[in-house]
Hints:
4 copies of one chain form a homotetramer. Chain A is mainly alpha-helical. Chain A has 2 domains: 3-64, Arc Repressor Mutant, subunit A (Orthogonal Bundle), CATH 1.10.10; 70-212, Tetracycline Repressor, domain 2 (Orthogonal Bundle), CATH 1.10.357. Chain A is 74% helix and 0% strand. Chain A contains 10 helices and no strands. Chain A has helices spanning 2-13, 20-36, 43-50, 54-60, 64-84, 99-116, 118-127, 132-159, 168-189, 197-212. The longest helix of chain A has 28 residues, at 132-159. The termini of chain A are far apart. The interface between C and D is medium-sized, with 29 and 30 residues.
Amino acid sequence: MTEQNDMLDILLNSDEKLTEKQQKILEAALEIFAKKGYSATSTSEIAKKAGVAEGTIFRHYKTKKDLLLSIIAPTMAKLIAPFVMRDINKVLNTKHEKYEDFLKAMILNRQAFLRENMSAFRILIQEIPFHPELKEQFKEHIAEKVFHRFQHLVNFYKEKGQIIELPTEVVIRFTASSVFGYLLIRHIFLPEAKWDDEKEIEMTVHMIMNGIGAQE
Amino acid sequence: MTEQNDMLDILLNSDEKLTEKQQKILEAALEIFAKKGYSATSTSEIAKKAGVAEGTIFRHYKTKKDLLLSIIAPTMAKLIAPFVMRDINKVLNTKHEKYEDFLKAMILNRQAFLRENMSAFRILIQEIPFHPELKEQFKEHIAEKVFHRFQHLVNFYKEKGQIIELPTEVVIRFTASSVFGYLLIRHIFLPEAKWDDEKEIEMTVHMIMNGIGAQE
Amino acid sequence: MTEQNDMLDILLNSDEKLTEKQQKILEAALEIFAKKGYSATSTSEIAKKAGVAEGTIFRHYKTKKDLLLSIIAPTMAKLIAPFVMRDINKVLNTKHEKYEDFLKAMILNRQAFLRENMSAFRILIQEIPFHPELKEQFKEHIAEKVFHRFQHLVNFYKEKGQIIELPTEVVIRFTASSVFGYLLIRHIFLPEAKWDDEKEIEMTVHMIMNGIGAQE
Amino acid sequence: MTEQNDMLDILLNSDEKLTEKQQKILEAALEIFAKKGYSATSTSEIAKKAGVAEGTIFRHYKTKKDLLLSIIAPTMAKLIAPFVMRDINKVLNTKHEKYEDFLKAMILNRQAFLRENMSAFRILIQEIPFHPELKEQFKEHIAEKVFHRFQHLVNFYKEKGQIIELPTEVVIRFTASSVFGYLLIRHIFLPEAKWDDEKEIEMTVHMIMNGIGAQE
DNA sequence: GATGAATGAGACTTCATTCAT
DNA sequence: GATGAATGAAGTCTCATTCAT
């Protein structure tokens, strides 16, 4: 309960109550962190791009790291929101009769999120390796929750006879790999190529289902 | 020819002709770069860990970036070596009757490499996003070569009727995602877990083959 | 016009709008550069003498060279100011009936300047040989302008029959050599000797006039 | 006596007994010191240009400063040689009936020297201001000797009635200024211009003689 | 709340010099 | 005699952060 409320807090509070300057700072940091990495970015550079004085940054964020967290924390939360908040966003719930349909819905939903949060997402995956606290936080609060939810889901579809008898974690890993593989290539490595998203997702889900689906 | 010789040069020259101190420097840099990232690592820290004077680093590597490249360049080369040097390493060649067998051989081969070059590999994937020249170099010299080789391979097995009629790049993406997904989780995210590699690879290849294999 | 305004800008802006610390830095740099030369002077030494943190220097002057230029540029400008700004400073204009009078006025005027800007002048002549851009700037923007003005002046007095028929540039070189010779020995080589400036200038001008003056 | 022998030593020893490497080092240092100044020149740069190892420099010259002195000391000596060694080089002796002839001979003689020792001469005048010992050495051992010799000369011609009644030091300063003025412009400031040396010297001497010569 | 001058620690790098080979 | 790897002090410059205005 409390945790979910924490999450809600983060989700609802972020992007609100922000001074215009604060907004500018966040935007500038977002852009530069994503491009050059946290360590290689100087606060003076952020200040310049944000059009504020150097001191102003530290009025709103006690330290440079604080600024990083102000970007990463809400992004983490939003990234996994659909998997955690069961009553709010029903898009990904077990309403779907088929694992296939669930996958499609999930990919579309998260792809939409990615599209609007590319920079923040980049920062998230680029910085996590360098900040043990972030890594820990990610594992404990994020990865495991999503993983558990997925376990339930996969088991659910297994019982329905839609997924073959492989260890659940293997199924999850395979599914996740295929999905992330597509999303990363699509949005990070070759974002400027022309993509027929619908068809690509279709094929991806198709291969996944072939890979782990039970013969009907 | 020349390109292959370049590659050979890099592969054979590296790790040789190195002063003892130089070796120490490389090892120290390798370790710290991997853990904290290039930008967050100071040359004084490297010097201390290597047990040399800070000036000594710059006798061997003109700049800090030079030191980074001295680690990354050979790693890139070795990483893709089996895909590029057709006559030397036959492990991955089309001698394999089945795509399945090829996949297994490749995974085992590259997994062995990863095991011995984890730190360098981490640095490679962690730093590429922050260094446009590296990114470019990676795309042009590395990714495309490997990709082309894979195209030939996949087409070869397609003609043999072992792979279903999906766009070649989709097949490659799917295969690569599944394989990298396994390797990353296995070696980067959860390296300390106990893994039955043989079985995991077995299952991974199995799922891939289900996903894209033609029904016999 | 524009050029004259540039010059005016430099002349009027310099020494104004300066922080107290900035002023201190300039003074310290001035003194040490003059004594030890630009290259042999360290920024830490300047900081210490100026009583500021070393970082403060670089807040005001992007580089050490910048600091040098902040000293040299205005000095160059002021040095030749009377020769360039015809309407402002009439001291050296052709109001003088005789070349002799013009010379005396000029020497006195520039000697006063030198007295108050010895260090900067030293730096100017000591550093120009080592900085090609300065040399170029000096030649193009300074030397030529002054030279042209002198050509007009000498021609003017030639037409008046006060100067014998030698090539104008030879007359200028001779005059300049004699004047600079006096000023350098007086202020640079033997500044601590006792000088009767009025008499020395009298004799110098006398010799110059004998050297190039027409017999009346 | 001893002093003259010292001088002789320097003159005769220099350029002899030099290893090939040593010669190379001297040449390299000469060139770079002249261009960039002593302080801004690194020993490694000299080593590179000389084609020797860094250590080799310090085998021959205990310190970098030693290397500088090895260039400057003989140059100083040679520069004033004709004024000091009365019996060896008679070119500039009082054999000349007229001050005018003496001047011409002297200018030609020293101009020849300058032409062959430009770099060393540049270093001499560029570095003296920054090295108090050099300045002292120059004043005591060089300037004064030459000055005294000149005093005798000027007095000699004064007595002959060839020079007007001005203080001897004024005459010397005026003569020296005119001569150096010519030589500096000719060889340092505008060396690439086309010069009719004979005519220029003619005019220069002419002006000097007008300036200080007695009417016959 | 916002500014930007000031800071001092520490970043990368260069340097003159030494010394084992 | 020559080398060049090694050094550590010192060089220039950047940085995150503070604080008086």
